[in-house]
Amino acid sequence: MMPIKTVSCLFPALLLILTILSECAGQSGLGWWDIWQYDGLQGPQYWGKSHSAWLMCSEGKLQSPIDLSAERLLYDPDLQRFEVEAPLRTSGVIQNTGRRVVFSLDRSTPVVRIYSGPLNYRYNLHEIELKFGDDDSHGSEHTVNGKAFPVEVQLTFYNERYGSYDKAEESVQGLVKLGIFVLPWNETSRGLSKLTAIDVVKDIVYRGDEVNVTNFNVKQLLPRTFEYLTYEGSLTIPGCFETVTWIIMNKPLRISRYQLNSLRELVRDYKDDETFRPFQNTFRPLQPLGRRAIRTNVAKRVEDPEFDKACPKSRRQIKYKVNTTP
Questions:
Q1: pTM of the prediction?
Q2: How many other C-beta atoms are found inside a 10 Å radius of the C-beta of residue 194?
Q3: Residue 292: burial class (beta carbons within 10 Å; 0-12, 13-18, 19+)
Q4: Tell me: the pLDDT tens digits for 154-185?
Q5: Known catalytic residues?
């Protein structure tokens, strides 16, 4: 058994490390935003203890990501399909930030919007992020019945009534995040290939690298389905604001093995650094669902007028199971 005096020695050491981080941030001009990570003493378990503005990361009750358990799904007959408005061609920059692989739209690009479905307002696209792991057993932030996917694409939108992402992220019904799982396949889905093409990924190997992406049709990134799951949650990065309506598509995209392996070769460090850490496993651990509802519009298709008449959708009790085929 570990002696009590040994435990008492660990606490001052932790305070010392946090103090050093704070002093280094101040001396170098870095803010708290610049020092968080996905592992070590700057990892998710310490986000809520590192900065008062991030307290929600440790004390919030509506945190994300979550496990999408089939047993917890609730069929909502009032959930309609959501709509996405997007020009045929958009342009922007995809960047390796050292913690995130993220695509940001050019300001001159026409607005991409999402509305309807579970949403009461219209939301403008802010960015698209790729989450992935170092092997196929993990990578996505959300899981389905405890199973993770190698990749999760997340499109982040902000409520246009707030005028900007910065104002919306801390405001009620401020954000929408559209999550799409990705599976390895023989080829890559058309929309996703614009972000994961080899000639794109090879130019963002190191932290700070970025490359222009043009002629990108955002709507091609969406799977061909109107089925989705939705719940109220949070950002999965500091400060974990509980202002997000999550929409998870009920159909995955596909990525070629070659492109997936290329993503796994990215590094978290600058090109001139002495050592390189792999850019992998950039996902927050699962958070408790609590009493939240996970609603869905997924319903069994019954082509039987007599059944529909005897049991309308509003009265059906639907049970779900995980489909093991993509």
A1: 0.86
A2: 21
A3: middle
A4: 999 999 999 999 999 999 999 999 999 999 99
A5: 162
